[in-house]
Amino acid sequence: MSEVTLEAKNVFLSFHGVAALTNVSFEVMKGEIFSIIGPNGAGKTCMMNCINGLYHPRRGNLYFKGREITGMSPHRRAGLGISRTFQKIELFGGMTVLDNIRLGRHMHLKSGIINSAIYWGKTSKEEVEHRNFIEEEIIDLLEIEAVRHEVTGMLPYGLQKRIELARALALQPEIILLDEPLAGLNLEEVEDMARFIVDLNEDDRWKVTCVLVEHDMGVVMDLSDRVMVLNFGVKIAEGTPEEVQENPEVIKAYLGEVEDLYVSRR
């Protein structure tokens, strides 16, 4: 049997009495690409925020590798191996690409305050090791060698999306939450990003489990092992891409009733 990496049980989330998630349960298996889709306002990003600790559900439980994480802070979840990219880019625009990526290594730094005050020695060696990992494993993988010393805020949007993925990978996560990584990209950039996601999921050096929120249905259906569909905070379907595409509830959620479509055209 496949190992369960992430599990949500009966998750409820509301804001001032307005339900954002209602009784949502699912499992993400180790090594798979699990996508969460749904119309705008369906609760997809709310679910991602619950997983990485930005939101805490009103009721329900979340588990990572069998360990309950429901009440954990985001930094503790990061320490367990859960990393995140955001729908809206959250980079430090005044810093270089390399420095933004280095921030993602903070959970792996071992030098204490005293050692850090005396740079030459253990701290210097540790910094070189982390720098080499970033250069050899992440920058090469995402093909951003040419811009690694550039100021991030001066780069095109598509490259900034790639840099945000690089920072998330710097954590060396076991699972990565990708919130609309293709939003705002042109066709060539979409193809590149999709390739990078497949590489980090399948490459023996990474083997990262992925939870993907995305509106590009072509990419979702091509990349995903399984898909969960939310609508108004309620799970209405889960299964393989083929099963989800043929589900009447999913078709209704995206396209509306046949009668509604007819009326709207009159």
Secondary structure blueprint with pairings:
Elements: E1 4-15, E2 18-29, E3 33-37, H1 44-52, E4 59-64, E5 67-68, H2 74-80, E6 82-85, H3 97-103, H4 113-117, H5 122-142, H6 157-169, E7 175-179, H7 187-202, E8 209-213, H8 217-223, E9 226-231, E10 234-239, H9 241-245, H10 248-255, H11 258-265
Parallel strand pairs: 3-8, 3-9, 6-7, 7-8
Antiparallel strand pairs: 1-2, 1-4, 4-5, 9-10
Characteristic key phrases:
single chain; 266 residues; alpha/beta; six-stranded mixed sheet; four-stranded antiparallel sheet; 11 helices; globular; disordered C terminus
Order of helices and strands: EEEHEEHEHHHHEHEHEEHHH
- Beta content: 15-25%
Q: Tally the helices: what do you get?
A: 11
| Sheet with the most strands, sense and barrel status | 6 strands, mixed
Describe the structure.
It is a single chain. The chain has about 270 residues and is α/β, with parallel strands linked by helices. The chain folds into 2 domains: about 1-80 and about 175-265, 3-Layer(aba) Sandwich (Rossmann fold), CATH 3.40.50; about 90-170, no CATH class. About 40% of the residues lie in helices and about 25% in strands. Strands 6-7-8-3-9-10 form a 6-stranded mixed beta sheet, with helices on both faces. Strands 2-1-4-5 form a 4-stranded antiparallel beta sheet, covered by helices on one side. Strand 9 (about 225-230) and strand 10 form a beta hairpin. Helix 3 (about 95-105) packs parallel to helix 6. About 35% of the residues are buried. The model is unreliable at about 260-265 (pLDDT under 50).
